Amino acid sequence: MTDKAFPYSEKVMDHFMNPRNMGEIDDANAIGDVGNPACGDMMRLYLKIEEDKIVDAKFKTFGCGAAIATSSMLTELLKGISLEEARAISNKAVAEALDGLPPVKIHCSVMAEEALAAALKDYEARSGGNGSN
Amino acid sequence: MTDKAFPYSEKVMDHFMNPRNMGEIDDANAIGDVGNPACGDMMRLYLKIEEDKIVDAKFKTFGCGAAIATSSMLTELLKGISLEEARAISNKAVAEALDGLPPVKIHCSVMAEEALAAALKDYEARSGGNGSN
Amino acid sequence: MGDDRKIYFDHQASTPVDPRVFEAMIPYFQERFGNPSSHIHTEGVRANQALDAARGQVAELVNSETDEIIFTSCATESNNLGLRGFLKANPDKGRHIIISEIEHYSILNQALKLKDEGYEVSTLKVAEGGLIDPEAVENAIREDTALISVNLANSEIGTIQPIKEIAEIAEKHGVFFHADGAIAVGNIPIDVKELGIDALTISAHNFYGPKGIGALYLRGGNNISPIFEGGFQEYGMRSGTENVPGIVGLGVAAELASIEMPKRIEHLQKLGKMLWKGLEEEIEYINFTGHPIQRLPGHISFWIRYIEGESLLLMLNIKGVMAASGSACSSNLKGADEEDLAASHVLTAIGVPAEFCSGSLTVSMGKDNTEEEVRYLLDIMPEVVEKLLMMSPLYADKLRGKDPYSK
Amino acid sequence: MGDDRKIYFDHQASTPVDPRVFEAMIPYFQERFGNPSSHIHTEGVRANQALDAARGQVAELVNSETDEIIFTSCATESNNLGLRGFLKANPDKGRHIIISEIEHYSILNQALKLKDEGYEVSTLKVAEGGLIDPEAVENAIREDTALISVNLANSEIGTIQPIKEIAEIAEKHGVFFHADGAIAVGNIPIDVKELGIDALTISAHNFYGPKGIGALYLRGGNNISPIFEGGFQEYGMRSGTENVPGIVGLGVAAELASIEMPKRIEHLQKLGKMLWKGLEEEIEYINFTGHPIQRLPGHISFWIRYIEGESLLLMLNIKGVMAASGSACSSNLKGADEEDLAASHVLTAIGVPAEFCSGSLTVSMGKDNTEEEVRYLLDIMPEVVEKLLMMSPLYADKLRGKDPYSK
Ligand SMILES: Cc1ncc(COP(=O)(O)O)c(C=O)c1O
Ligand SMILES: Cc1ncc(COP(=O)(O)O)c(C=O)c1O
Fold this sequence. Notes:
heterotetramer; A: three-stranded antiparallel beta sheet; 3 strands; 41% helix; C: alpha/beta; Aspartate Aminotransferase, domain 2; 13 helices; 12 strands; binds pyridoxal-5'-phosphate
């Protein structure tokens, strides 16, 4: 039983209305494509990685306000950090950066974490697996 | 299922507030004593009968508003009529004379009819049964 | 019909909505009318916030957690949800329940239904003042006792039960304990943690909140099933679009009660003493009912030998004083059958012989009643009683030396 | 956030209380606050008279007898009383029930519970427009069919069912027929005698009455049991102190609906046509849902390919337009589990593939909405849709020639 649900935090609304890094990266070398519309959410994360550093991050998302906001926040968190730092980013970190999500929307932040994992895996695959720990 | 219940009709309230013929008749020759306080109602009807005619009628009643009003109305109806006419007075007639009673209070008018019957029976008993039909 | 005086002395049946409560409700009818389930738009969110705030206010009044409050439509529903909902969710807890013989019909009639369904019901006797003996509760508990339900205060005779003592026994034996606080919550201090109860019925219209809204406190960790199915509102325990203005009203009524309770109680105890003393002095054949001390403040109940209750009430009403015979909200005479006219189960339970029960009166005062109003009642009582005594065949018998009340 | 415009297009979730309804309710909070069961005093009598008057007004709206109206706390309760109450009172009528697949949760979840208890449930499929085929009802009827329950109009897609035809079949086979009129009564003409139904659910807050009050029409001669026990209010079928102001509000809302319905419908049909036409012209990827003609006036529902419903609603809300995704009052996301986020059962029922259901929108207009408001929505829709299309990976795929919606 919980009492906090909607409305979204102001930060969620801000990222929903003014999503950062919305779009695609033509020369992305890591793409994470997760979710599907039947579940209500689908997220595609584009990363440009240079020398173990994320130099650019963009997204396209089909989903609710929380899905869009977590996508936006995730790309913000990712830009400019190392792969090692990126691997440490959890769904909780994304949710917290947004001042929290309603319980029923936690799965959106989980999707962000999954998109990141998928993108990193894609990068490893492209670069021959030499980026893993 | 019925929708008419309380409030009592104006006539009931009038007879309740200003009961007619309340009291006892010292030389009554017919007394009807019915009901008991456990049922919530008790009525004692006093009649003075002369030559098959009711020359006086009084009552004492322990009971609800409807019980008091039916007692009062009954005595009004009885005063001055013949025994034969009295025998024809039904509980319905008393209720109608009061512009009706709520369904749950119909039993009060039944009690009035019973009190009358008891008084007439008492009269017959006293007069050796020669007053019957 | 004399002057236009109207004195309301029937607060156990219902109370007027406090102007401050009504003020707080107003916006939720025409402006903030959103459905709390419309999470996505402004009006829905506002409605939701109103629910949360009210839940907090009610929780504060009874010292529960916010998420331990479930809104319902009335105390009757809360009582049904508390008992039936618990039994449905816990079929393995046994088929025996314990209630007292002076419960409201929403408990008594449930118990009858449960009996039909194979439950066994122990109905505790009460002492003359209406008190349940905690020891009797302990003696009634069996291996298969699923729950105990007891009214916190009785509307007809005002008696307040030793809830804490009973709760301790229930806890000791691991039995779920529901208290019916319909007319107690908001009128006397109630702290669910301090009392140690599992569930508590709350009724808004009995403490200056609106009709059509009640609540059930349910201690966290307890599991109940809804009594009707739907869209999972109220933590899934009570479906149906929420009565938002009603809930807001309940919340504010709770807040006002939290703040003003000591003052209200002091005032009502004063009025109560004044009325008790006055009646005792002036009405010769009076018998007070309920417990002299463990009773709701401002609640005076009695019967008068030789005269019948409804006729007394009617006369008082004509003189502008509204009171009750027994529990006004306990039964509906409309279309009811004769059985309902039988003596009150509460009065027979406390030992008033059945033949005298129809003389019972309940005068329940509220926070806005005045000493002057009590004085008025004391002024008119003697003549009204005298008038009815004069009509009474029982009194006539007594004057002739055949007193039906002296055996 | 632009201007302060607030346009409410979510009347299927709830409606504002009409000022005239509210006006009529006011006295019953603070002045006429008596308990209708307090038959003996003035305030009780007044409360009772208010109930009688309201019952008459509601009866007039649906053309029933006065004593065929039972007040409840909401449509959810009425639905539960209609089904569960009938089955409880008629255990010999068989263990099979028929509903449709587009019922509200208060019917669907009851059906699930009934299944658990050994009932068999036939769930009728609907056609693309959401219509139930009366012939399918006839085919589903068995020897042991106890009841049929069908929603008169569906809140999510607006479709109005052929109730009269279904009622004739039910009558022919002697089966009890309940219609869930929660969002239909008061908004479209309903005549229970002409339709020939046994029971009808009525919801005040769906036609400019207050929340917290509903009713069940029950044809005379039908026998139902209460779903909770108590003091026998409402002809013994619904216990609990009556929500007098709520009932008064329902009554006046019913009276206003009786009088103003033709005018309201004409107005709403005009707005509905305008919106439908405008959206059709301006939104390229739109798909309307529900029946094009047999639908609630002023109710438009649709989904848009490539974009998701909640994000669309959120953006519209920021621009001051409040609408719904599916049925707002059908489920409570607060504390609900992920399951509730699944595609709407109504949309999948009418053949919208599950993967597209999350794009569904319901715009339900009310009597006080204006053409100007519709025009505003039509003005802002294209840019909002465009913004979401730009964000959508599905749309990006489509532009690349991999359209997920074309098989
Ligand atoms: C068809 C239908 N029935 C019943 C209900 C339940 O109404 P309430 O939540 O007011 O009880 C709704 C709610 O929208 C509905 O659309
Ligand atoms: C102790 C008790 N419980 C429950 C109720 C039922 O309250 P309601 O009729 O408001 O549902 C009453 C009514 O007086 C009561 O006195």
